[in-house]
Amino acid sequence: xxxxxxxxxxxxxxxxxxxxxxxxxxxxxxxxxxxxxxxxxxxxxxxxxxxxxxxxxxxxxxxxxxxxxxxxxxxxxxxxxxxxxxxxxxxxxxxxxxxxxxxxxxxxxxxxxxxxxxxxxxxxxxxxxxxxxxxxxxxxxxxxxxxxxxxxxxxxxxxxxxxxxxxxxxxxxxxxxxxxxxxxxxxxxxxxxxxxxxxxxxxxxxxxxxxxxxxxxxxxxxxxxxxxxxxxxxxxxxxxxxxxxxxxxxxxxxxxxxxxxxxxxxxxxxxxxxxxxxxxxxxxxxxxxxxxxxxxxxxxxxxxxxxxxxxxxxxxxxxxxxxxxxxxxxxxxxxxxxxxxxxxxxxxxxxxxxxxxxxxxxxxxxxxxxxxxxxxxxxxxxxxxxxxxxxxxxxxxxxxxxxxxxxxxxxxxxxxxxxx
Length: 420
Prior knowledge:
Blueprint: E1 2-6, H1 10-20, E2 25-30, E3 46-47, H2 60-67, E4 75-77, H3 83-94, H4 98-126, E5 137-141, H5 144-159, E6 165-167, H6 169-175, E7 188-192, E8 196-197, H7 200-213, E9 217-220, E10 224-230, E11 233-239, E12 244-246, E13 249-252, H8 258-262, E14 272-282, E15 295-298, E16 303-308, E17 311-320, H9 329-342, E18 354-362, E19 369-372, E20 378-382, H10 388-404
Parallel strand pairs: 1-2, 1-13, 2-9, 4-17, 5-15, 13-20
Antiparallel strand pairs: 3-8, 5-7, 6-7, 10-11, 11-12, 14-17, 14-18, 15-16, 16-17, 19-20
């Protein structure tokens, strides 16, 4: 069986690995010149099962209204004449109901927990090196109302298998001593000891090398211009160069770009790009002691902090602006302000900071789409939102089981395609 995979990011590479180790012939295509050059390139660096509460929750509408008109808002909705954006937004509001939020948390956690364990096993099996730290993830709060909500969410997550524990302000400082310098009051937190951090790009590049050893072929700099479907079955794809490639199956793992790619086939995916930003700050030896080592989530600012070797990665926010990839100073500035507030002794040299943005493929409820479509031989592995790194290895395993007709480890029904 020959399988084509569109997309060489974390999701595509993980899919290739699980399929190739079953002896299948796999070809991965990507328009970029190498592995993980888009959304997987400079993300927050967290394997965060504890970050399973979706953006769509009962508190979201009020917060979004309060943020309207603010260029530095954690979630920024740019008004555009884009029917797909408005359809997505309406579905997002529907997912804000408490019952939907609870079910979405359950589905996200089932996949995230399975994926985290498979990542640990894979790292050991292949001796992968990607600046991994097994220090857990600490959510920190500077607002008592946010902390009270977090305690309730942590209780819900523990029921679903995620050991996220409330901790006091003093315990937060004991877990991450660098917070003692914070100019903002830390009122409490939650801690998930089994969560991790690491460089997603380095992981994807390393895993791709192991894929090659299994016979996976990577073709970079290739743009797909059309998919050939006859009698509701996938047959081949057409490249911009004019080349036609046939295969038994096609896996679309093209992130946010999966939506426009499949639209001509009548498949309207509820996946829309949510632009996230990151800055990577180099840490000189003397500055290292003032930067956090434990990976942090600052829920109030919607930011994450991860130590990646001699670098500090700060990432987050969401900007709904279509497929725009421009880096706006107004969106970068809040990240740097928060670093200066929480870790004032970390030196920030503006000319040495790496600025980045990427388009997270978001579904309204943050639950990804994994599995078959109404077109035979055409499969999805997209829509992971902010949790692509957390869910990547498990998503590849789930997809392989579905393609091979095996019973998956988790119930696949929450991840079935739901048209917009």
